[in-house]
Each structure stands twice: as C-alpha cells, then as structure tokens.
Amino acid sequence: MTTTKTQTVTHNGLALDWAAGHGPITGALSATTGAYAVATVGTLAHMPPTWALAIGTVGAIGHTATGLRQKLAARTIGARAASWLLGSGWTTWALATGPLTWTSLGSLAVIGVGMGAAARSVGLYEEARELEAIAAAERQVARELSAERRALAAEWVDRIQRVCGITVRVLAVEMWPTGTGFTIDAELPPGGTTYDRIARENAHLSADARLPHGCTAAASPGIDQGRVLIDVTTVNVLAAEVPYPTDYSPLSIHTGIPWGYRTNAEAILTYLREQCALVVGPTGSGKTNMVHVILAGFARATDIVTWVIDLNAGSAGLPWVRPAMEGGTGEAVRPGIDWLASTHEEAELMLDAALRVGLQRKRAYQDLMAKANTDLLPISAEIPQIMLVIDEGAEILTSNEPEKRKLAKKILEVIRMLRAMGLRTVLTALGATGSVLGNMMIRREAKTRVALTGGSTEGMDLSKLFPGGTGLRIEQAPHKGTGFMGTPESTAALFGTWRILPNQIRDIVHATSDRHPRLDAISAKAAGPDYARRWDYNRTVWITSHQHTEPDPDTTPPTQAPSGRAGGGLNLSAHRDRTTSAAPAPDEDALAEQFRRQIDAEFATTPEPGRPTTERPTRPGLNLSAHRNETPAEEDTAARQAALTLLIAAGPAGTGASAIARNLDQYGTTRQTVAGWLKAWAEDGTAMRIGTGTKTRYVHHTHAPEGPAEPSQD
Prior knowledge:
Elements: E1 8-11, E2 14-17, H1 24-44, H2 49-69, H3 74-97, H4 102-164, E3 169-175, E4 181-187, H5 196-199, H6 202-208, E5 217-221, E6 227-233, E7 257-262, E8 267-270, E9 277-280, H7 287-300, E10 304-309, H8 318-326, E11 339-341, H9 344-364, H10 366-372, E12 385-390, H11 393-398, H12 402-417, E13 423-429, H13 440-445, E14 448-452, H14 462-465, E15 482-487, E16 490-496, H15 502-511, H16 521-527, H17 529-532, H18 537-544, H19 586-602, H20 638-649, H21 657-662, H22 671-684, E17 687-690, E18 697-700
Parallel strand pairs: 9-13, 9-14, 10-11, 10-12, 12-13
Antiparallel strand pairs: 1-2, 3-4, 4-6, 5-6, 7-8, 7-16, 14-15, 15-16, 17-18
C-alpha cells in the first residue's frame, strides 16, 4: 500500500507543490523533459530503443481506457493517446540516434509545443461540453415546467374570458415555493380595461376553478396599469392553527413587525413608523389573540416602548406583566410592556404623559432633526417609538360616557399631533360599522387595517373598512384567527394570524427582557412622576390581588359586602385585616408576599402602611415612604416628587441641589431644602453621592455605578 504525500519545498520565497495538477504548458514541459531525461540516461545505459516504444504504447492504451470510463470526447482521448505515442516514438528514435543533437532537441521542442496546444484545445472543448450538458438538463426541466405553465395559462385565459368577459394575454406563471399556489402575470386587453374588472369576480373565478374553501383567485395591480396579477391559492393554509414562530430574534420599527401570514404562507410585515393601525373583530374571532401577536412583535423590537390601555380589567396586558412580577428565575425580568392602564384614571395619566412627551420632543430634538435633515424624529434604541395599544379603543372614541369622552379627546390628540415625534396607536374594535369608522381621523391615520371575521357576518362591513378592496367575502375566512388585512404596501387580502399561548408569552417576556429600550431622558422627564411611579405598589396591587377559589358562603354572605369596604369592588385590604376577613390560601399569600418583595427591590416602590417591614434587599431600593410615619408637615410634597423625577431623569451624569432648585421655581423651593432631600436620599439608598465640595453630584440608584455610595459630608 502506497501513500501519496504532498511535499512543499520553499526556496527563495517560492513554494512548489509537487502534487499539484498540470495545465497545458506545464504538462507539455513535464512530458518533453521526461522524454529527454529517459533518452539521455537510456543512451548512457545502452537501453534497447524498443523499450521506450512499449512503455509509450501501454500509456496510450491506459489513458484511452480511462477516457472512455470518464466519457470524455473522442478528440480528448485521441490527443492524450497521441501525446504518449509521440513522446515514446521520439524517445525510441533518440535512443537509436543519440539525444545530444540539434535535430533531436529541435524535434522535441516541436513535439512539446504541439502537446501544449492540443491539451489547451481539448480542455476548452471539454468545458464547453460540460456547460452544454448542464444547459441541456436545465432546458429539459424548463420544458417540463413550461408545459405545466402553458397549460395553466391556457386554462385561466379561457376562465377569465368565460367569467369576466375579457381576453387577457398571460405573460408569465410563477409557481410559489411553498407549493400552495401560483401567480399569473397577464396583460389586459386594450380599451381601458382595469384590473378591478377581474377583482370583482374573485368569488366567481374561485368557484369556476373548483378551488377548496378558503382558497381564492385574488387580482391586484400589475407592474403598470395595463397589467394584472392574479394570485391563485390551491391549498387552504388558513384552515390549520399555526403556532407563533419560536424565532424571537430582534426586530425594528423600520424593518417591519410581523402580524400574520398570507395564503401563500409568507409573513405580513407592518410598518408603523408613521401609521396607526385598526384591528376589528367580533367576539370569538381571535381578536385578543391578535393583540397578543402584536404585543409579541413589539416586545421583540429594540426601538419600541409599548403602552397598553385596556379598560376591561387590563386583560390584554396582564400576561405580559405577570412574568416580571412572579419572579422565580433568580434574575430580574422586565415586563413585556412598559405601562399598563386598566382604569380611566390610569389611562388619563398615560395619555397626559404621552402628550407631554410628544410636545417636549418637538422642542428638544430640533437640532437632532436638523442634523439628520428630516422632519421626522429619528427613532432608535436611544429614542424609542411609543406604541399605544388601546383595546376596544374605537369604542372609546364613539362612546357618550363622560369619562370615555375625555379619553377619546386625548387619544385623538395623540393621533393628530404626534406622528412625527414617534407616538402611534393601535386601536381595536368589535366591528367594522359606520359608528366605529365614522371618525375621519381613524380612517385617515389608520392605514394598516385588519378585519378578523371568523365567519361572522354581523357588523362586518368590509367595504367600509377596505374601500378600495373588491371581491372580499367573509365566507372566504370562516376560521377563527383568519380574516382580511390591508396595508399601504399591500392591498387587502386574506390572511391568518398565529396562535400564541400564555406559556409562549412568558417565554417571550423572558427572552426579550434585556432587549426592551428605556424611554430617553428627555421623554422620561416630560412624562413626569406619573410615568416614574407607574409600577408603585398601590398602582399595581390589582395585578396580583386575585382569588384562586370560590369564596365560602358561610363566611361571606352574598348580600353582605366584606368588611373593610363600604360597597362592592376589589378589597385591597384583604391581606391586612386578618381578624375581619377570611385568610387567603397559602399559595396566594406567598405569591402576594413574593410580589411585594420583588416590586420593592426591582421597581423601587413603597410598602403598604400597616405591614411589618422586611429585611432591606441587597440592592438599594427606592423608599418613597421613608417619612410616612412622621408628622404631616414633613410628608413628601409635590415639589419633593418633582425633585425626585428630575434626579431620575438626570441619568448616570447625575445632578446637584442648585440645578434641581432652578427647575422648582413654581414651588418656591430653596436650594437648602433640595440639599436636605438629597442628603436624606443618599442616606436611605435612594441616591448615591459622588464627589465633594463644588463637584458634588447625586445619581439615582437605578443609574448609579457599582460600588458603595460615598458617605454624606454635608
């Protein structure tokens, strides 16, 4: 057994690989020098001339057999055999007459040139043969596909003539890679015929083609106004429930957020930098699931901050908040949404903060927009877009209730005024009716529209939701989670949304926790204390104040309100007055206590009065109730809260007493008062003191660097 090794010799920087293949020149040179060496050595050794001829004959026969096995061309096989015979023939003649003559050397040179030219010629010929074989195979496949396409083209030309009364000329038929249908590119007949002549007959074309339920033949504009594209779906991909993709890779407001998939199984992307969105769907159509899909896309984005308003007990946002409050992983987990409002009061605070943020951005970012040469605020992870998702927000806009009318006015102000500053809304509604779509602001700004039908026909006027859409029939989307979607980038057509379950929502919250952007300092300062304290215990206790089992009728009669409250409603003191109310279940008590500890440590909120204090967490927390037990005159005032907000908004750079006092002129607060607050916050861990003397500054603990705080020296 022999082993072939590659030997590389380096000499004067030149590497020679003796195992490398030969080209036309090096091959001819190797053959001629070999023949000359054999002739010279053979002459000195008195080798019989016929030996060289025999060796050459064997080599020619061997290469001929190899060429036949490799299916080489006849000229290639002949050139190789001739090279062996010529080389061996010259060697035989040189052995007989002597190789050291000019005649021998000249003839050998001529043979070498001939070998090189022949090798180059047959090499090019073999390359051409190989390319031609590949092209022939491709042409064969194309002929087979072309035959299928020609049959489809002829079939649909006849069908369009029969159903629509017009004759089109099919230019191309593209088969979808998913194998679920094909697209016909056709030229309309002269005389001003438009594509909607075919689009209006969507249902009739689908019936004539005997397409399965849920499959359509949807016409849309082509490359110009004289062309039409007809998407023919042959497999109903909307019938099966498709889970939300497990790819939680980062997204951006600029690259699009996926909301569902078309009948060709391609994902639909929404671009909401300048657009609002409207999602309508009756009860049981999958609207709540659609909201969770939208929130999942926003949670994956690196430049979107999501605020949710749901006056139905906050149910749309609860699954995105609870994983952060339950803990149990040993690591801090941020909620999947940045703010959740479940009451009219909290919704007003949120909308007021949004308006303040938008107006402050208009003033503060003029230089940035001028530098970028744009009239739109450049949205990024440092300056994120705020998306307000308002469940049943369209009904709020049409309600006559005084509280909802106040909210409606502020929602419309956000929609109307703050597009350029990166605040957009996603509204949902129970139906596509005239009362919901009667507001011109909604129709003008909500260019991304979704109608989840689930087969329901009541209150679903698709012509009002998609004025330009033709041939849309509710019967085409009978399954839950299916309907029609239209964006400025794509016309209204059938679509389906993924199914997302609570466990997957929890996975997304954990997977994207470190990806959520924080509101920029300018916007956070404008949002004020309402935003900074959005996770305070007294504003989030309702999230975990729930009952796992039915109440005992013996201890709480149905006609009598539980002690500790004057009437019906949520009893927030159920865990405080143990003598007058039923004790909670052990697991509920543990969950509530765990929630309090984590909310105090992670979100910097205040423990409730009357509860025994627990051990201070290792990480310093914000103790807003440090002076709760002192006299009323020493309690936090509005000025103190405004000072705390300015401290938080200062970020890692920190600030000082003089800078804060200058921004509190409306309260009449002096620098000495602010210095006292800062000293107290430095002592209780709310802030960290950095520097001394005139360079003293204070940094809120959420922005403070690692390491112990310096002791106060005031």
